[in-house]
Amino acid sequence: MDQPRIRNFCIIAHIDHGKSTLADRLLETTGAITDREKADQVLDSMDLEREKGITIKAAAARMFHKASDGVEYEYNLIDTPGHVDFTYEVSRSLAACEGALLVIDASQGIEAQTLANVYLAMNQDLTLIPVLNKIDLPHAEPERVVTELERVIGFSRDEVIFASAKEGIGVPEILEAIHERIPPPKGAPDEPLKALIFDSKYDAYKGVVAHVRVFEGTLAGRQELLLMQTQKSFEPLEYGAFSPRMVALPRLECGEVGYVATGLKDVADCRVGDTITLNASPAPSPLPGYRKAKPMVFAGLYPTNTDDYQDLREALSKLSLNDASLVYEPESSAALGFGFRCGFLGLLHMEIIAERLEREYGLDLLTTAPSVEYHVTTTRGEELLVDSPATLPEPSRIETIEEPWAEIDIIVPSRYIGQVMDLVTSRRGVFRRMEYLEPEDEGEKGEARVLLEYDIPLAEILVEFYDALKGSTAGYASLDYHVKEYRPADLVKVDVLVNGQPVDALSLITHRSNAQREGRTLVSKLKDLIPRQMFDVPLQAAVGGRIIARETIRAMRKNVLAKCYGGDVTRKRKLLQKQAEGKKRMKVVGSVEIPQEAFMAVLKLRSD
Fold this sequence. Notes:
The chain contains 14 helices and 31 strands. By secondary structure, it is of the alpha+beta class. It has 5 domains: 3-181, 3-Layer(aba) Sandwich (Rossmann fold), CATH 3.40.50; 194-278, Beta Barrel (Elongation Factor Tu (Ef-tu), domain 3); 297-367, Alpha-Beta Plaits, CATH 3.30.70; 397-488, Alpha-Beta Plaits (2-Layer Sandwich), CATH 3.30.70; 493-502 and 514-607, Elongation factor 4, C-terminal domain (Alpha-Beta Plaits, 2-Layer Sandwich). A hairpin with a 4-residue loop joins β10 (225-227) and β11. α12 runs antiparallel to α14 (596-603). It is globular. The protein starts with 5 loop residues before the first strand and ends in a 5-residue tail after the last helix.
């Protein structure tokens, strides 16, 4: 296809504003999928995506549209996730496009992720087409939302397309707007080849399949290709496009989006953000790639059956082929045996990975409480990266600890401002600014929606924060965050001792001011969760060598005097003394079995 007739675009939006449904309608209207292939969420191929109703991985699709000028255009669509944890997927997709459809729910209006995605698109210099979706809903307020778009983002009323992806309203107008407003790709077909890898996945027959956008030159023939970052060369097995299934093609022209089957067996050789060029005549410089996705949340994954350790290792290595943002390394714990310390982009990412391991690989897993990465400077001047409480040095060896801080944007109706402020300040949040998205008199029943900006430690929003925010605002609040910087903090490690033995998987790093409260809450929860033994089990929380909280799980007591009827009192004393000695001996050699619920108690600390 000639370059002037190609359009590359993606769909960006807040969660649940109708991206995947709109993608389905575009594919149906252009005939990319037949009536027989019609299904909800065509581009969401994973079971988890369909069940949770969210997009996790970016997906591409090619379609052809005959415009009002009688010319047929090639549209390359990239569907992107909406959840904040998968922002890295969005930023990668934007780099392969010239324009984006910005989808806004006509009843919800602008949400936190809407703004975050707009800024991402503006930084990439993309043409934005605002689409007001779900106008058919009874509680839709298109006029209010259009006014909001004019004030907050600066669109004019004429630019906004009114649509309902579910009913197919406005879809022809969107298809026309794509060819009228989004510019065709630039780039010279006769220059040395430059193709950007914006995603990759592993195929058992074709090796690593790289999703590419050709910026310069043409991909054709069996000539040897070179990956500029890893300096790995390979002979391509196949070129093709997604329509939306993989369809083999003889070549990929300059400006087109498609895939290259590399035949490589290791995804590490074919990194996302790398540039493909010809081995015989390479391009002088690679395309600007992506910053590597940096894990923000760390947790331990342990198999409940120790024999499954090798299976877990293989499952993680296969998952990391499809998900470049997952990092893992082996670790061992006295309480849990051998497992892996894994890095994730956020809690949803962690939940998705754990669920995929259990479903797709049949593993039974135990997940430890999530933690963030701390920067620790020791008294000797060494700088350490600590992502697990178990690896934090002794307090006497620590000079300073720095923790990551995030900038959060919360959009909420004005009547919930007080609840949001209480919640954020109770988690050490620092207020930055507040902005009304619409004047007081224009909001629903005279009520405006408000954007609140705070700085807050990342560790404080990891667990239960999103649930607490939704709960305190009747579900109306929307949240976006990004990590900003590291700041010094007065942090301590709270150890949990079960029967005098420290259980490293139960320890946590927290602010000194919260240590006593969290320690007391944790041991009282563990008292209910750890089963009773034949001897007393002391549960203690300690900071350094100082015990800050204690509970005791009372022993199950057998009545040894049940068969003593009367008789000499010394016989009774002997039996009781023998029982006490047995319990003392049992306490020394007996081990306490800690159930999975006990490890999850650390997660739910703050929900109380």
